[in-house]
Amino acid sequence: MNRFENLFKPLIWFMALLLATFAAGCGGGGGDGSAAATVSASVTAPGVGVGTGGTVGAAGRGPAPVNLRTGGNFVILAQSAITNIPSSAVTGDVGLSPATGAGVGLTCAEVTGTIYSVDAAGPLPCRVTDATRLTAAIGDKGTAYTDAAGRAPDYTELGAGNIGGLNLGPATYKWSSGVLIPTNVTLTGGPNDVWIFQIAQGLTVSNGVQIILAGGALAKNVYWQTFAAADIGTTAQFNGVILSQTSIAMKTGASINGRLLAGTAVTLDQNTVKQPAP
């Protein structure tokens, strides 16, 4: 009997070790397909289609909205200049601070709203001098930028920075690089769902590209936070609030349903800029 015990004991230990290893492998790894999973262009998380027409993210999920505070009273808000090649059509209030009103390149005929200036310079008769209002709005814009940049991401490095052709559900998306949108992107969700895009470099939207809102998604709930410049290509149709640490450039004929909130300059070229519905 001892002879058989000695023969089978090593085999029993080997099988026990094999089963333990298998159980650990099944229970670990965090690969449950949750929104916190990291997705890249070459890896598809369970239940998530990347580059296959599937939706990244899930309906009904997403972060809390970014509170723009008084910065949200402006459709265009910049700190150094607002340049413009006429004619553009802007719906909503425009503000420039701390640069003087002389840096506003829009005319009153191009703006359905008020142009706020820190001094008596700027276009008349729609220009209103209100340095206090502008100082508060610029401060709130900076707070909103910091808030958006600090949210915990649900997805990182999606598409290695190229998100063209994707259908994105509400979530917080983060990149350590710039983001390129060479083809249409669809944002699918309900009217209370929120998208935050955290971009460590710049945002480049190619000519003619559309950011499409589907399922009742609203432009006011989409936030594009960029550390470097945001460039919206010729005739592109964009949706959402752009919070740029530096500049925002709208190329010829591009349009936006959203807000242009820049740390330095906003450049317009025969554009349509419309504040989102509340």
What does this protein look like?
By secondary structure, the protein is of the alpha/beta class. The chain has one domain. 17% of the residues lie in helices and 32% in strands. It has two helices and 23 strands. It has helices at residues 2-27, 131-150, and strands spanning 55-56, 74-78, 81-85, 89-91, 93-96, 111-112, 115-117, 127-129, 155-156, 167-168, 172-175, 179-181, 185-188, 195-199, 203-205, 211-214, 222-226, 230-232, 237-244, 248-250, 255-262, 265-269, 272-274. Residues 1-53 have low confidence and may be disordered.
- Multimeric state of these chains? single chain
Helix content: 10-25%
Mean pLDDT: 85
Uncertain residue segments: 1-53
Gross morphology is: globular
Number of domains: 1
Question: Which structural traits does this protein have?
Answer:
278 residues, alpha/beta, 6-stranded parallel sheet, globular, disordered N terminus
List the helices and strands and how they pair.
Layout: H1 2-27, E1 55-56, E2 74-78, E3 81-85, E4 89-91, E5 93-96, E6 111-112, E7 115-117, E8 127-129, H2 131-150, E9 155-156, E10 167-168, E11 172-175, E12 179-181, E13 185-188, E14 195-199, E15 203-205, E16 211-214, E17 222-226, E18 230-232, E19 237-244, E20 248-250, E21 255-262, E22 265-269, E23 272-274
